[in-house]
Each structure stands twice: as C-alpha cells, then as structure tokens.
Amino acid sequence: MPRLLRKYLPIFEWGRGYGREALSNDLIAAVIVTIMLIPQSLAYALLAGLPPEAGLYASIVPIMLYALFGTSRALAVGPVAVVSLMTAAAVGEVAQQGTAGYAVAALTLAGMSGAILLVLGIFRLGFLANFLSHPVIAGFITASGLLIASSQLKHIMGVPGGGHNLLDIIGNLFLQLGRINYATLVIGVAATAFLFWVRKGLKPMLLKVGLKPRMADIATKAGPVAAVVATTLAAGVFSLEGHGVAIVGTVPQALPPFTMPDLSLDLMRQLFVPALLISVIGFVESISVAQTLAAKKRQRIDPDQELIGLGAANLGAAFTGGYPVTGGFARSVVNFDAGAETPAAGAFTAVGLAIAAVALTPLIYFLPKATLAATIIVAVLSLVDFSILRTAWSYSKADFAAVLATILLTLGFGVETGVMAGVMISIGLFLYRTSRPHIAEVGLVPGTQHFRNIRRHMVETDTSMLTIRIDQSLYFANARFLEDYVLDRTVDCPGLKHVVLMCSAVNEIDLSALESLEELMHRLSDLGIKLHLSEVKGPVMDRLHGTHFLKALTGEVFLSQYDAYSRLHPSNAAVA
Amino acid sequence: MPRLLRKYLPIFEWGRGYGREALSNDLIAAVIVTIMLIPQSLAYALLAGLPPEAGLYASIVPIMLYALFGTSRALAVGPVAVVSLMTAAAVGEVAQQGTAGYAVAALTLAGMSGAILLVLGIFRLGFLANFLSHPVIAGFITASGLLIASSQLKHIMGVPGGGHNLLDIIGNLFLQLGRINYATLVIGVAATAFLFWVRKGLKPMLLKVGLKPRMADIATKAGPVAAVVATTLAAGVFSLEGHGVAIVGTVPQALPPFTMPDLSLDLMRQLFVPALLISVIGFVESISVAQTLAAKKRQRIDPDQELIGLGAANLGAAFTGGYPVTGGFARSVVNFDAGAETPAAGAFTAVGLAIAAVALTPLIYFLPKATLAATIIVAVLSLVDFSILRTAWSYSKADFAAVLATILLTLGFGVETGVMAGVMISIGLFLYRTSRPHIAEVGLVPGTQHFRNIRRHMVETDTSMLTIRIDQSLYFANARFLEDYVLDRTVDCPGLKHVVLMCSAVNEIDLSALESLEELMHRLSDLGIKLHLSEVKGPVMDRLHGTHFLKALTGEVFLSQYDAYSRLHPSNAAVA
Q1: Which residue of B has its CA nearest to A130?
Q2: Which residues of chain A does B424 touch, with a Cβ-Cβ cutoff of 8 Å?
Q3: B512 touches chain A (CB under 8 A)
Q4: pLDDT per residue over A300-353, tens digit each?
Q5: How does the average pLDDT of chain A come out, rounded?
Q6: Cβ-defined contact of B130 to A453 (cutoff 8 Å)
Q7: How far is residue B525's CA from residue B486's CA, in Å, rounded to a whole number?
C-alpha cells in the first residue's frame, strides 16, 4: 500500500527528506515566481477572453494539486500563452466573450481536459503524445506565438478586434486604423519597448554597474512588475480612463471561489475535440519542460504520472474559477533557476498568489489592458523561431513539409486546424514512405559473405537468381507494391529460376502482406520461378510457422543470404 | 501521340488485332452476361432505393465507357451490391426515397465518385487504396452481405421497413411481424429457395442427366431469369397485385435518358465523404477482380488507368440516369468463364441491355419485388464468409482486432462508419506497433561474426558495452521510446562505457528521432558513456552526413557490428 501511495502521490517520496535548506530555497523561488506570475496570470486571462481574476485563480489550486500528484520538482503549472489562445478559440465557438456562459464554458473545458488527462494517465496512454512530432510542435509554437502577438495589437491600439487566424486579425485591425486611441497607443508602445529593453538590455547594464548576476536576474524578472506599477500610476494620476484607455477595473478581492462547470452533454460534445487538443498540446509542452529540467539534475519524469498530475490540476481549475492550465516553459525555468528544490516551491507560490488575490487586487484597478498586452507580446515573441524551417529543409523534405503546413495552416485557419493538420500530415507522410519502401537488389561482395545493393557496390550476381532486400516491414499499405515490383522485375529476366526475398529489415509481416506473398508465390510458380526467403527474424518466423504460406512455399527459408546464394547454385560457393 | 493515345485509350491496343474468333467469343459471353444482368440490375436498383430502370441505365453507358478506357479484358462494370447499399445509405441522408430529389442525388453521387476516381487516376494515386487492408475488406464485405440480405427481408415479407444498421433493420421488421403479406411471403420464400437450389443443386443434377459442363453452367446462370419469368407469370395470371403483392409496375420503355446531376455546393459537401468511400471501396473491389482474372491469362492491369476507366464509367452513369457503378465480382467471373476476350464483350452486353430497356420492360410489369429481393439475398449471402476471423485470430491479434471491429461497426453503425473505422483501426494498430518497436540486446555468436539476441541465443557480451538492435525505423512516434529504453537500461549497468545502436533494420531516421538521438547522446555523455552506431544503411547515412548530430557524436560509426565489438574492446577480437 505505501508503495502504491508513493507511486500515485509522489509527495510521499520527496516529503520524507524535506529539511530546512530545501525549505529556504523553495521559499526564495516562490517569491520570485509569484512576482513574475501576478502580471502574467492577469495577461493570459485577457488572452483567453476571461476576466483577469480567472488567471490568478487558475494559478492557485492547480499548482497545489500538481504539487501533490506531479513528478517534476521544478515544473510551475498555470495559465500559458498557447493554451490560453486555444481556450479563447474553443470557448469563442460556443459562447459570447464577456458573458457568464463564456466563463462557465471555460470551466467545462478545463474539467474535460482534466478528465481526459486523468484517463490517459490511468490507462498509461502517455505515448500518444509522441505522435506530435518535434517539427510539428516547433512549427505550431512559432505560428501560435505570431497569432498571439498579433491578437494583442488591438489592446495596444485601443480598438475592438478579433479573429482566430492571422488574416482575420490583421484585417480587423486594418479596418480600425482610423479609430486608434492615442493615449492607449502611447502606453502600449512604451510598455512594449520597455519590456523588450528589460529582456535584452537591462541585465548587461546591471552587471556593468556591479550588481551580482543573481540579483540582476531577479531584477530582470521583475521588469513586468515595474511596467505594471508605472502604467497603473500613470493611468490613475492622469485619469486616462476618461481618455478612452481601457483599464482592468474592479477585480473581486477574494480567494478562488468554488465554481461548477456546465456538464450538459451538448456543450461537452462541442468542446470535446478542443479539450482533447488542449490536453495533448498542454501535456507535450509540460513534459518537454519537465524532462529538460529533470535531466539537469539527473532526475526522472514519469510521463503517465505527469498526466495524472496535470489532470488533477485542470480538474482543480474547473472547480475554482480557472481555465485550462499546464506546465509553462518560462515560469518553470524561472522556478528552476531561482533554486526551487521540490514541488513545495509551487505550493508556496500558490500561497503568494492567494495573498495577491485577496490583498492586491484593488491596487490594479487602474492597470491599463495595454500593459498586459505588452507583457504577452514580449513573452510570446521569444517563442517565435523560424530556424526549424531551415533545419528541416536541409535534413528531410518530409519533415519540412510537415512544419511548413503546420505553420501556414495555424496562421491561416487557427490553432486547432493547424495542430491537427500537422499531426495528420506527419502520420500521412510516414505512411506514404512506408507504403513505397526502399527495395534494393543485392549481390555478393567478392571475398566476403556480405550482400550489398548492386547499384552502390561492385558485386557478383547470378542470372538464374534475383535477390531482393526490402527495407521495410511488410504490411497492408506496401504489400501490393512489393508484389508489383517483383512481378515487373521478373518480366525482364528470361532465365530466372529463383527469387529470394532477403528479410533482414522486415520486422513484421501482417496478414495482408502474407496473402500478397502467397499470391506472388503462385504467380511466380506459374512462370516456373521459385520463391525463397532468407534472414527472416525470430519474431517474424515464429508467426509464419503453421501458416498455409509456409507449408505451400515453393522454395526454402534460408538462415542467411549467403546460404541461399551458395545452395541455390552450388557453383556459387566455389566463386566466393 | 499514338503512344499516349494507346496509354489512355487501351482500346487502340487490343482493337488492332481484333478478329473473327474474338468477335464470336465476345458475342457469346455478352449474351450470357446480358441474361444474368437483366434481373440483377433491376434488383440492385431496388436495393439502392431507385426505380428499376436506373439499374438498367447504370449498366449501359458505363460499360461502354469502361470498354474505351479500362485495362481489364474481362471486367464487367455496373451496379453491384455493396455500392448499391452505400448509395442507399448516402442518398437516404439527403433526400426522401421515391422523390425526384433522391434520384438526382444518386446522379450527383455517381458524378462526384467519377470525378474523384478520375482525379486519383490522373495524379496516379491508386496506391491509396492499399490502405484498405485485406482483413478490413474481408470483414466489410461479410458484414455488408449480412446487412444487404437483412435489408431485403422486408420485400420478402411484404411490409414497410428500413434502417442502415442491423439492429434498426431487424427491429423494424419485428414491429411489422403482424402485418406480413402472405402472398408476398410465399413468392419470396419460394423464389429464394429455388435460387439457392439452382446455385447448389441444379448443376450436379444437369451434369448427371448428361448435359455438358458448359451448358450446365449457362443454365445455372439463367436460374434467376427462370424465377423472374415464373413469378411474373404467377403475379399476372392470379392478379396478385390485388392481394397486396408489390410489383415493379410501369418501367419506361426507352434508351438511357440524358440526365443532369444536381451540382449545388451544399449537396456536394454533404455527399463528399460517401462519394469518396464509394470510390475507394468500388475501386478496391474492381481492381481485385480485374487482377485475379488478368493473372489467369498472364495479363497486367494498370491500377491508375483502371481509376480512369471507372471514373469515366461513373461520370457516364451520372449523365444517363444511373447511379454509382464499379466492376462486379460475380458478373466479371461469368463474363470471363463465358469466354470474353476483350472489352468489346462489355460493349455487346451494353447493346443487349439497351435492347432490353427498349423492348422488354413492358414484360416485367407484373414482376414481384419479392423476386428481386430473393435474387439479391442469394447473391450476397455468398459473400458472407466469417472464416477470415479464424484466419486472422490464429495469425495476428492486431489483424483480428481490425477485422472484428470492421464487422461489428458495419453491422452496428452502417457501411460508412464500418469501413472508415476499419481503415483507421488498421492504421492505428500499425502506428502503435511501430511506436513501440521490438528492441533486442545482442551479443556475438561464438566462432562467427554474427550478433544475435541475447535472450534467444548463447552469445558473448562485454560488461563495458551495451549493444542494442532496434527493429524499426526511427521516427517521431518511437523516438522517445528508444531514448527512455536506453536510459532505463543504463541505470542497471554500472561499468558501462559504450552504447552501440545496431541499425541494420533502421530504414529511416526522421528529424524528431535525430533530435532524440542527440538528446540521448548528451545524457549518456553526462554519465560518461559514449554513443556509437553500427551497420547504418546507405540512404540513412547519406542523410546523417552534415548534421550536427554526426559532428558532435561522442562515439564512432562502425561499418559492421563486429567492427564495433572488436575495436571498442580490442581483447574481444582475440576471443572470436
């Protein structure tokens, strides 16, 4: 029982050895992460189309639950940019932004996402996330970053806007060019410029004036807080609200409330696909961060337990006024760099945010939304990285096609279409390649027992014998391809008596392929040609035993290709 | 130009050598096939929910067009059972059976199906049909046969009914049990029994009384005509219509009319998926028959030209009052057995059917629908074959799962769901298997240079060296699996200095896998372990050249595993 408990509640593992030093490290990390998370949580709520407090709530109970169930020591769970954007796209389909129904649908989405993650974790289906290939993820993150940044321009310009793809977003902004609110624009541009400078220029400057690297780092992380404070003061002092600057306004001064998602079947049906995509994308983002950070300290992450941890976090979000969450890259790295040793750092962060939710919310009444938009833009533009296109192009055109399609479709049709198309294109290209396998005709390398491609090497062959090496498992999609290839080849070889299939790279023969082989054998037999196999692997041979094909085989199964070569034409043996 | 013409119009190929003997053989085959097709065409139109003449029309112009464009010498194109059922399911979704809209939607379906086939043919995409695995096709045909037979019971019982899955169909019949029309039932049961007897008992009897096998065969094929004549006479003489027996009634006495499919975008959007499925299923059925028959005469079928031939046939059906058609199994075999030598036999059949459409339609006024239903039932029950379940079970559980799911889903949710699920399950299981490849730890077979699985063979190993043979291409879905496997294995090996990946079965390394290998290399390097590769294939090595991974590789790339074994630990060489 205690072993099971430790497995499903990793807190029992790290909790036992928890001491004073870990406590102090975790506390320091929590303070830094809390300062970073306050503006970020508000901003991501804005991106998701939700009231600002939803961002804070989504960071409190979910973090606590992840601390109980998760396996990563440094992962910081909460709202992240891509998932916030996906939430806005999904919930926008079923409810009007700003209505009560919108916030409730976001809860439903978090609840469904949590349930899906839990189910995947309990049934150990974490491997499904592997079907999101690296290039597709890279393309998707880059395109999402561009989409997110452009979606925030309306807040910088102080105009209405919307749209879930780049053309719509830009088009809508274009229509509003005449209605720009210049007070908002000044604040937005100033905040964006300041934050970019904090990111690029502040740290070197602080180091130059003699600050210690650690302190310079912390000061850099606090940059967004400075922007928040400065613009909030400006908005309050100069009554910018009267000049048309959108501000955050009243935020309830309270701990996360108990909320109930809408569990009507109809809504759940509409949100199922988005919830699934959010779960998978969130899981992939989270697990990559968790594994990267764990590797630095030689710790291991259990992907299936991670699913359970993230599932619990999302269920927590659904019942406490949040929306879908996952492990974020930026916040986790900050947490790790700040010295967090255990998930307790996350729990302390949650306490810090809870205090903020209760005590600090009146202070942000005058906070301009443009400042939050600036925070988002600066954060997400660091995700944009087109170098994957060059890397993929130089390595493999198939990977390049998948990346390019993912980027273009995400920009052109939104996040859901983009990521689904990326996955389907990757799988489709893989299936296409396996359906037309590389097939080499091989001959004997003189003086050895090795057989190599006759097009790449000087080899000996025998006109009465055709040896074909298939570089792929044989399954339904390529079964007929092999049949056609062999039959076409035999047409040109008048003296042919034997066809040998060299199976060193055949890891599987499925029933369709077996039937095709049988068909091939019969057709070759009609032409007076025998079919042989060589170098069949153990697992494949185990399965062939007892089949009609093996019983009816016109030729033999040879242990090695050299056996086949020397036995089918005894004079060959002398040659070698 | 003439070469291109011969390629796209195979008639120029076989037409040149057409002589008297071929003509006489083709004419005889055409007469036999025409006799067989008259009742069958009427019956399949009934199955598709269309007026009987639609079945005749679908057999006239389409056959002519296939004769021009197709490559098979024996294939007989026209309405077939499975495609008729799929037509009923698809068109039933957009229009009410018996309305003009229903017939027009069937034309649209044929037109779209023709266009899809043409496009697939022109872009040489015939290989796509390979993704329908043999077990899935076998399961689908068996389940469709059961669905079709049960859907015809309402005509045998003389009651209304409907439904697109087995439960609905049986349930609807059950509700009508009290309203059976006994006159219809007598005709239906008698016709069914007679046709079964013709199939099983007639031929042996005729042979016994001294008829030649060829004549006995022809008589057997004419059985349905006898049933049609007898029941039509009975219905006419005894005025069975007055007793509630549904009869065919007035069939227009005319050649196929020129018809215009409804090309509205909305309808085409609704019919797109069904049209795609009908195209693919029809193509697969047709090509299997064509290849089987061609093989018997050492002829070759060009799958892409077949797509063009079937596409033209379906477009023809759309503009001449038909509905989707394809090459049928039963009729093609009859055509072949009757001695058809060229596609001209098909053209003569079309002429025969045209004569029937003009001259014979008044004669079938009294033909009971129950007789047509009996024809269908007897024809499709011969398609039902559950032995594929046993075959698949004994060979591979994955194939068994695909076949069972296809059968159950087709019976439970109809033909479209069934076949799509079958394809997706086959692909899913293939991806699942490739995502967790067989990985063997190998050692040296003493006295040889061969390396084999340490679990299956007595081999030599070296504690400072772990050699892993991956029996699968490395791609996104299994990249992380390998990484986890190797890292987990290294935990138990304290003295480990070298990990060698033996790549003889690795036919591809995609970008995701390359990144995973690089990650693995870094993690192993942190543990003081070098990563080596051996037996990398030419095409894979070509691609690795110039990558960052190869430049940063901590170990070496060895030509053979034996090289790696002897060079990494020189004392090993002495052992062998």
Answers
A1: B477
A2: none
A3: yes
A4: 788 889 999 999 999 999 999 999 999 988 788 888 888 888 888 888 999 999
A5: 87
A6: no
A7: 13
Closest B-chain CA to A547: B395
Query: Which residue of chain A has the CA closest to B439?
Result: A507
Radius of gyration of chain A (CA): 31
Kindly provide the residue ranges of all beta strands, DSSP E only, lying in A275-333, ordered along the sequence.
Answer: 326-327
Residue ranges of A 531-570 with Cβ closer than 8 A to chain B? 537-539, 543, 546-547
Q: Tell me the Ramachandran region of residue A132: left when phi exceeds 0, alpha when psi lies from -120 to 50, beta otherwise.
A: beta
Q: Which residues of A touch B453 (CB under 8 A)?
A: 538
User: Residues A186-225: pLDDT tens digits?
Assistant: 999 999 999 999 888 888 888 888 888 877 877 777 788 8
| A387 bridge partner residues | none
pLDDT at B153: 93
pLDDT at B483: 86
B182-211 tens-digit pLDDT: 999 999 999 999 999 988 888 888 888 888
Encoded tokens for B543: 């691609």
Chain A contact for B127 (CB, 8 A cutoff):
yes
CATH 3.30.750.24 placement within chain A: 439-575
Distance (Å) of CA A86 to CA A285, A419, A540: 14, 11, 45
- Hey, what are A459's tokens? 């080899």
Q: What is the pTM of this model?
A: 0.82
Phi and psi at B560, nearest 5°, equal: -130, 160
- In 3-state terms chain B splits into helix, strand, coil percentages (rounded to 5) of 70, 5, 25
If you classify domain A439-575 with CATH, what class do you get? alpha beta
- B403 to chain A, minimum CA–CA distance in Å? 11
SS (HEC) of A517-565:
HHHHHHHHHHCCCEEEEECCCHHHHHHHCCCHHHHHCCCCEECCHHHHH
Helix (H) or strand (E) holding B450: none
Contact A127 B430 (CB under 8 A): no
Q: What percent of chain A has pLDDT over 70?
A: 97
Mean per-residue pLDDT of chain B: 87
Tell me the C-alpha distance between B307 and B300, whole Å: 15
Nearest-neighbour CA in chain B from A68: distance (Å): 24
User: Which tens digits make up the pLDDT trace of A77-99?
Assistant: 999 989 999 999 999 989 988 88
Is A543–B395 a contact, with Cβ atoms under 8 angstroms apart? yes
Q: Which residues of chain B lie closer than 8 angstroms to A301, CB-CB? A: none
Q: Does the pLDDT value for residue A502 go beyond 50?
A: yes
Which chain B residue shows the shortest CA-CA distance from A294?
B523
**Is B426 part of the contact surface with chain A (CB cutoff 8 Å)?**
yes
pLDDT at residue B516 tops 80 = yes
For residue A268, name the pLDDT band (cuts at 50, 70, 90): very high
A415-435 and A265-296 helices, crossing angle to 10°: 70
- The DSSP secondary-structure symbol of B445 reads P
For residues A217 and A58, which has the higher predicted lDDT (pLDDT)? A58
Q: What pLDDT, in 10s, does the model give residues B399-428? A: 899 999 999 999 999 888 888 888 888 888
A403: closest chain B residue by CA: B511
ipTM above 0.85, yes or no: no
* A475 interaction partners in chain B (CB closer than 8 Å): 133, 430
Report helix, strand or coil for A25.
Answer: helix
Phi and psi angles of residue A103, each rounded to the nearest 5 degrees, phi first: -65, -40
Confidence at A121, pLDDT banded by 50, 70, 90 = very high
Q: Is B489 on the interface with A (CB under 8 A)?
A: no
What does the DSSP assignment read for A339-394?
T--STHHHHHHHHHHHHIIIIIGGGGTT-BHHHHHHHHHHHHHTT--THHHHHHHH
CA–CA distance, B466 with B475 (Å, rounded to integer): 22
CA-based nearest distance B519→chain A, Å: 10
